[in-house]
Specification:
This protein is of the alpha+beta class and 205 residues long. It contains 5 helices and 6 strands, in the order H-E-E-H-H-H-E-E-E-E-H. A 4-stranded antiparallel sheet has the order 3-4-5-6, with helices on one face. The chain is globular, with a radius of gyration of 27 Å. The relative contact order is 0.11.
Length: 205
């Protein structure tokens, strides 16, 4: 009886040891999920080592667009220090060169720019965040002009840190896939029309 119990105990200990090793392996190889509440949102978002929820990306897109849309000579250095760790090396030089050129233009033209986000849209197919709203330019005489402006941003996670991998801004509403398809069709129709006009002109000659 004692021999049977001892044998059973050894088998049990061996099984438990194997299970512990397997459990340790899965724990070590599983991405940690962190629950966070971005300051621009009132609901939860999550991140892992290399992924983030849509809400998290939208929150960062909103913040980045708001900061850059209200850039000035006074806050440029501060803004650069905040954004530098978040910009991907692949776009780092071009990203800050454009910001420096914009600040130089602001200084030369003696203007003040401001941006008030109106909406944030995420496009799953391209993983882009579109932040658009009202952009306002005030000249030295206090005269203001306003227009719609869009900031197009892609954010990926790199060891739990958000990283900007794509950034463009332009006048007008978001050029998402639907809009771009319409623009491509329009461009193709224009090219076709020009080709037909050239053919008709050659026939006439």
């Amino acid at each position: 009886m004692l021999k049977t119990e001892a044998k059973f105990s050894r088998i049990t200990i061996l099984v438990q040891s194997v299970l512990l090793v397997i459990m340790f392996f899965f724990v070590m190889n599983k991405n940690t999920v962190v629950t966070v509440i971005p300051y621009t949102l009132s609901s939860e978002a999550y991140i892992t080592q290399d992924k983030a929820s849509v809400r998290y990306k939208e929150a960062w897109g909103h913040m980045i667009a708001s900061e850059i849309g209200n850039i000035s000579q006074k806050n440029f250095n501060f803004l650069k220090s905040r954004l530098a760790p978040l910009v991907s090396p692949s776009i780092y030089g071009d990203f800050f060169k454009k910001l420096e050129d914009e600040v130089a233009q602001i200084k030369e033209d003696k203007i003040i720019i401001s941006f008030a986000p109106a909406a944030v849209v995420y496009e799953p197919n391209t993983d882009k965040v579109f932040v658009f709203g009202r952009s306002e330019v005030t000249n030295a005489l206090g005269y203001k002009t306003s227009s719609v402006r869009t900031y197009e941003i892609k954010i990926r996670m790199n060891l739990y840190v958000p990283q900007i991998t794509h950034f463009v801004s332009y006048a007008g509403e978001p050029r998402n896939e639907n809009v771009l398809q319409q623009l491509r069709k329009k461009e193709a129709m224009n090219q076709k029309k020009k080709a037909q006009e050239r053919e008709e002109l050659n026939d006439f000659e």
